[in-house]
Design goal:
This protein is α+β, with helices and mostly antiparallel strands and 632 residues long. It is built from 26 helices and 20 strands. The N and C termini lie far apart (86 Å).
Length: 632
Amino acid sequence: MTAEQIVELFSDEFTEQETAGRIDNLQERLILYTDCISHAPHRILKINPVLTDVVIPFVSVDALLPIPTERTIPDVQAATLTPELIAAFLTYVAHHPDLCKADGTFKKNDCARLAKIFPGKADCLQQLLTALINLSVLQHQNKKITIDSAQLMAFAELPFEACAAYLCVAAAGNFSRSLLQEYAELFRAVIQAIPPEGYSRTTLLRLSYMIYTAQDSGFHSFQHEQFRMVSTATYTNALSQTEQCTAAHMIRNTEIVRIMFDRIIDTASDFGVLIPWRLSTHKKNDKVLFFSAPLPTGTTKIARKKAITLTGFSVTIFSGLSLSELRKLVPFLSITQYDTAPTFEITRQSVAYACDCGYDSTKIGNLLARYSSHVVPQNMYVTIEDWERAHNATALYKGYVLCLDKKNAHIFEHNPHAAQSIIKKLAPGIYVLQCTTDHDAAAVLRAAGLPAIQSKDTTVAPKTALPFLPLKNIPVAFSATSEKTDTTAPIHIEKKYTDAVPLIKKLYAALNALPLSPQKRTALRHRIERRVILSPEQLSENAVPDTLPEAHGVDFAGKLHLLENALRTRTAVIITLPDTSLSGRSTRYTGTPLVIHKKQENPSVVIRLNKTHECREFFIAQLSSVQWDTSL
């Protein structure tokens, strides 16, 4: 092992300085020595082979993983996480797709509804929702939660022990596929190594660290019985295999693994896979032990045949079915109460959802008859058929439609590769295909051996041409085809402008008669010049916002605000610069702002001076004052 790995291994018990001191002490006493590998970035510590026989009797795995000495052991119950709970929660999600907020937490109404249906399992269901989303079994899109049937099938085919490990890891964070598998294998190895006496959190973290680092050295599996038989000598010999590993494979970021596994312990406790038990309730810092809860095993033929009890349209499912089998019952059931045995109900909405998932009344009836302990009532078959018929009376399909003549339709329907892609046969020779892209549709047609076809896109609406704007009749003063027109006559094109002169004078006279401040009078005068104001009714005191007439040196925001308003209204300003000499006299400039540079370290303004028509740049912070020029 490296010195860094030893420090990390005992980080919960000793500080880094204490562990480093003990390592140096063992090296000085020649019990440990440093094996320098040319391609390794860290030093490798090994036991002195001469002293191996003397050291081994004093080292044991029990010293690293102490077993609690308390005699009082609680009765370990089964885990809260069961296939029935997952199936019941999936039925709730199927009929309440808008159950959570954007951050993944349950909404207020759904919290109350879930607390009534699943009493005492609020934290478990929240973790289950997060885990299923991170595993892509549930898709959170467009403010709704939907079930990915293909991903659910792949997940349900796993042994439930592996499902529980994946859920505990996925609830702790969103990982890549390889990292998710790695953490799940590590968690499963840890819970299998927990003895009946339990382990504390510190011991679990140390155990996870040992298994994780041992995997780098060649250990790939740790069963409970095997792990108890591993001696330190075997462990030390296995560490010598690091000489054959690269530096990247030998030294891994174990600190992140420790942090993540600490979170996985909490999620496993919410799922009931790990059962925490406090030894004493008198102190705040009590020692807490964790026990591994037994997970459900595989199904039996007897349990499969007696798994369902029907009472009217109420369905009670007992334990014994696997998640793969319960997955088939999810689409047409709706959870009503989750207790010792969950109770579901077959409703019109659940049958409609099952029909959307590809079920029909025959398939639903066969599944009920397969798992029911008694004969399914005939009225249930009839009612389900009526609900299916009412749901299928109106259907809206979205996808690819294939039209064939009689000869090619016969070939297409009897081709096994092409027939499985048919979603619905609308009429003789007209089919709705189960394709999502043009490539998939072309592959289906090639598999059927059909000749080249003509693709007609009916999803694009016909384009409507925009009409051209009509041309206005503009009077001209000459014409090449008219003999009555005098081409030498002058063209009067300024008549419209000359007509506006009296109006402008009238607006100036009305402005001078108003009792306004010089700043507002200047702003309104510029609006008249730019033809923004065209009537005397627009001349109002409220037409322009109130603006400070002057801003002084320390008021940087005020000076910048005045300059921006002057730049926008093209108003002249008077700026004052302090004199750097000892005379103490300041210099004043009058001009119009042209550009303001705000994104540089010292914001500045470029002003065209009225006196010299010169463009100069001034730093805004250095200006003693900025004021409007009211002399106009």
